[in-house]
Every structure is written in structure tokens, then in C-alpha cells.
Amino acid sequence: MESKTKLYYDTNEVAELVGCEPSALRFWEKKFPQLSPKRDARNRRRYTERDIEIVKKIMHQRDKQGRTLKGTREQLRRKEEAQLLIQRLLRVRKFLVEIQEKL
């Protein structure tokens, strides 16, 4: 699969991959802080696999779930916070297990 071998994609490639217009990608970049493609030396956007997954989540929330931009932004923020909380809890659990083993 070509999608797993490339590190960066340009705007037109991403638009074709996910089935939207390049202008939508540029618009969502302004509305969603999670979507932040890097810029190359010529100031062109370079999307990573992570960026593409975020675009897919935005499209799913909008098209399949019927959410507004504000609702989609809030949902993505909540999921991000939940993932961070899970990571913190896993670190605390690991720490407690280490302490238990030492006792």
C-alpha cells in the first residue's frame, strides 16, 4: 500500500484520499486545532497519517453523525482529553504496581 510508505501528503492528495475539496481541508485547518499540517520550505502544507486520520474523523462526525463544526470540534476535544486521561491512569497504575512489587 502506498499510503503506508509515504511520510507526507500534499493537500490535493489528501483531498483525493478522503473525498473532499482542498478548500475544505484549508477551512478545517483554521477551525480545528488538532489539524495542523506541517509546512515545507515552499510553505506548502504537508499532511501526515495522523492529520489524515483527523480529517477522516471530522468528515465522519459531520457526515455520518450530523454534527455541526462546533459539535465536531467539541467531540474531538473530548476524545483527546479522554485519551490523555487514560495514558495518565496507565502511568499511575504502572507506578503503583512497581511500588507493590517492592513492598
From TrEMBL:
InterPro entries: DNA-bd_dom_put_sf, MerR-type_HTH_dom, MerR_fam
SMART domains: HTH_MERR
Sorted UniProt keywords: DNA-binding
MF GO annotations: DNA binding; DNA-binding transcription factor activity
Record domain HTH merR-type: where: 8-78
UniProt keyword Magnesium present: no
UniProt-listed Pfam families: MerR_1
Leader peptide range in chain numbering: none
Descriptive protein name: MerR family transcriptional regulator
Organism encoding this protein: Dyadobacter luticola
